[in-house]
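Record format v2
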Amino acid sequence: MSNLEFGFTMIVVGMGGTLAVLAMFAVVMNLLKKIFPLTAEKAD
Amino acid sequence: MFDAIVNGLSGLGAGVAHLHWSNLVMLAVAGLLLYLAIQKDVEPLLLVPIGFGAILVNIPLADLMAEEGFLRTIYNMGVANEIFPLLIFVGIGAMTDFGPLLENPKIFLLGAAGQFGIFLTLGLALMFGFSKLDAVAIGVIGACDGPTAIYVSSKFAPHLLGAVSVAAYSYMSLVPVIQPPIMRLLTTEKERTMSMDSDTKPASKAAKIAFPIVITIVGGLIAPKGLPLLGTVMLGNLMRECGVVNRLTKASENEIANVVTLLLGISIGATMDGRLFLKGQTMLVLSFGFLAIILDTVCGVLFGKLMNLFTGGKINPLIGAAGISAYPMAARVAQREGLKYNQFNFLLMHAIGANTGGQVGSVMAAAIMLSVLQGMGIVP
């Protein structure tokens, strides 16, 4: 694999992948807040 | 008898006779690192042992990095096998409160944009003729995260470890100097004065406990090669949030982190032997590291502007600069810049959220990089 091909792949997959994974984490965090709401905890 | 005494005396001071000019330069560099740490308070916990390690390794004939030298033993014990940076990560996880991020999860995206400099710098390093794995180690300076940079460079480019580590820690401490001009250049005065809502919903204790577990599983499944990085941060955070292992949490953030920091610092210093370190390549690595942090900031602020556009003005782009891993320095810089233009502008909690997002982002960026390298068959 040439350096050009490697560099391009790393930039596209790296930047896109990081953004996509962190966006997924944000969704997961929203879900966690829904599954474990603060109010339910207070009621306990 | 006389000859024996003369021969014996000739052994004394033999180091002077073997001193190479590069050793003298590195002794001066070590002196500079110690000066910055002691007089200027620049990352003293790391720069004191690094500077002293550099002194030790540049004294000829001591053979401290030879096969049985004590610095080589420490290096093999925790740097060559990547244990030291991982133990530091447990401490970082134990010290980090992801609460502000959980309150406003969309801020997580800024933590991704703050890592773009890693990949752009990697591309530039390749254009300058560095090998693929060297370029990866250079790019990762842009993670603004010492342990990540050490982990990746010790794995793939151990000959660059000294330069990469010094660059990562030095530039991290220069964040308050590097970032503000870029932030001002890329934002309008109207944007800088923008206030952010504080009506975010706090997360429950159960959500905070579930967070490190779920993130480890999801992140690990996506980028398994980076699981040591992500898993150790999240283990530390789980110990912090669950509240039932306070002794382990305190040990991780104090005793273990302190001992490992000392051993890690001296090991990094030990890689700075003048004859190996003083090369044009080292200067290029330092320059690329600087560029990586500038690019991180540029991408973070520009992404902040984009989020501001899509959220109808709810995000102050200044907090985009906090999407890097230099915690909590980058968040404080965003807060300070915001206050300069609007004295009632309290961006700190939002910037802390972006900053902790940057911590996870830097780990995930490295994890993705490692997994992509494996996927392309470049590493086993």
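The mean pLDDT of chain B is 91.
Residues 18-375 of chain B form one domain.
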